C-alpha cells in the first residue's frame, strides 16, 4: 500500500511528531511505501489568493472556484499545489494528522485543503441531473482509496463523549471525515484519537504508540465509517435531503448520514 501522511504540527519534537514516526515505522515494517507532507517544515502557503492562479489577468475579479477550474484544466496551478496533487494520485491511503485546536484542524492544514482540493480535481466533477448530483460523497476522483485522521487532543476522552462539554468527537470531526475525505470519494476509516496528550507520561505514550501501530497494521481491514452515498438512493435529488422513511427513531444531526444497516 502507498500511504501519504499530511502532517500539521509546528514542533519537530512534539508528541504528534513522535506518533507520526511510530506510524511511519509500523507502515514501513509491513512493506508499505510512505510519503510525508510536513506542512510547517514545507512552509506551506495557507491562504488562497491571486498568486495561486498565475495565468489570471491582474485586473480580473477573483472567483476562486472559477479560477481553480480554469487553472486545473490548463495545468496552470502553482508547482507546490501540483506536487501535492501528484502525491494524492499516488497514494492508496491518505492520513491527515493534526492536533485538535479550537475544535478543528490547524489553519495550515485547512489551507492545504483549500489550495490542493482544486475544482475538477477534488470537487466539481460529474454530471448533474434530476437523478444524479455530481460525483461526490462516496464517489469522485478519490473513490477506491482509503483515508483516516490521527488526532491529538488536550482534553479528557470524557470531555468529547456524548454528554461531554466539548461535544462528541465524532460530531467535531464530521466536517473533516465527511466533508473533506468522504466528499471526494475516500472510504473513511474511524479516526485514531489520543486524549490528555499534554499530560501523557512515558507509560501513556508507550500504550498510545502501541495502539497506533496496531491501527497502521490493519488499514486494509478496518471497517470504514458507514456514511450514506449521495447518489445511492437515500437522498432526494436535487434537494439532497435524506428521505424521511430512512430516519431511524431517535436519530438526529450528523448521525442521520450513517447507514445503520451496514
TrEMBL record:
Domain of life of the organism encoding this protein: Bacteria
Keywords attached to this entry: Oxidoreductase
Example of a GO MF term: NAD(P)H dehydrogenase (quinone) activity
Main enzyme class: oxidoreductase
InterPro entries: Flavodoxin_fold, Flavoprotein-like_sf, NAD(P)H_dehydrogenase_qn
Database matches in Pfam families: Flavodoxin_2 (PF02525)
Domain Flavodoxin-like fold: 1-214
Record GO cellular component, one term: cytosol
Sequence similarity: Belongs to the NAD(P)H dehydrogenase (quinone) family.
Protein name: NAD(P)H dehydrogenase (Quinone)
Organism of derivation: Silvimonas terrae
Amino acid at each position: 500500500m502507498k500511504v501519504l501522511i499530511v502532517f500539521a504540527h509546528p514542533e519537530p519534537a512534539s508528541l504528534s511528531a513522535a506518533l507520526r514516526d511510530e506510524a511511519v515505522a509500523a507502515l514501513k515494517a509491513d512493506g508499505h511505501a510512505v510519503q510525508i507532507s510536513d506542512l510547517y517544515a514545507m512552509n506551506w502557503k495557507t491562504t488562497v489568493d491571486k498568486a495561486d492562479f498565475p495565468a489570471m489577468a491582474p485586473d480580473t475579479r477573483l472567483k476562486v472556484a472559477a479560477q481553480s477550474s480554469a487553472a486545473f484544466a490548463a495545468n496552470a496551478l502553482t508547482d507546490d499545489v501540483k506536487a501535492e496533487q501528484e502525491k494524492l494520485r499516488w497514494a492508496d491511503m491518505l492520513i491527515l494528522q493534526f492536533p485538535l485546536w479550537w475544535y478543528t484542524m490547524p489553519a495550515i492544514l485547512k489551507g492545504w485543503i483549500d489550495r490542493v482540493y482544486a475544482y475538477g480535481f477534488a470537487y466539481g466533477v460529474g454530471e448533474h441531473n434530476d437523478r444524479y448530483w455530481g460525483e461526490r460523497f462516496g464517489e469522485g476522483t478519490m473513490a477506491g482509496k482509503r483515508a483516516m485522521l490521527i488526532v491529538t487532543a488536550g482534553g479528557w476522552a470524557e470531555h468529547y463523549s456524548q454528554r461531554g462539554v466539548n461535544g462528541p468527537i465524532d460530531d467535531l470531526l464530521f466536517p473533516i471525515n465527511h466533508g473533506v475525505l468522504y466528499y471526494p470519494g475516500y472510504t473513511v476509516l474511524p479516526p485514531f484519537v489520543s486524549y490528555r496528550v499534554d499530560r501523557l507520561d512515558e507509560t501513556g505514550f508507550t500504550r498510545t504508540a502501541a495502539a497506533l501501530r496496531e491501527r497502521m497494521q490493519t488499514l486494509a481491514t478496518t471497517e470504514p465509517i458507514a456514511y450514506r452515498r449521495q447518489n445511492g438512493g437515500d437522498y432526494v435529488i436535487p434537494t439532497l435531503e435524506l428521505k424521511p422513511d430512512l430516519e431511524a427513531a431517535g436519530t438526529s444531526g450528523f448521525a442521520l448520514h450513517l447507514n445503520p444497516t451496514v
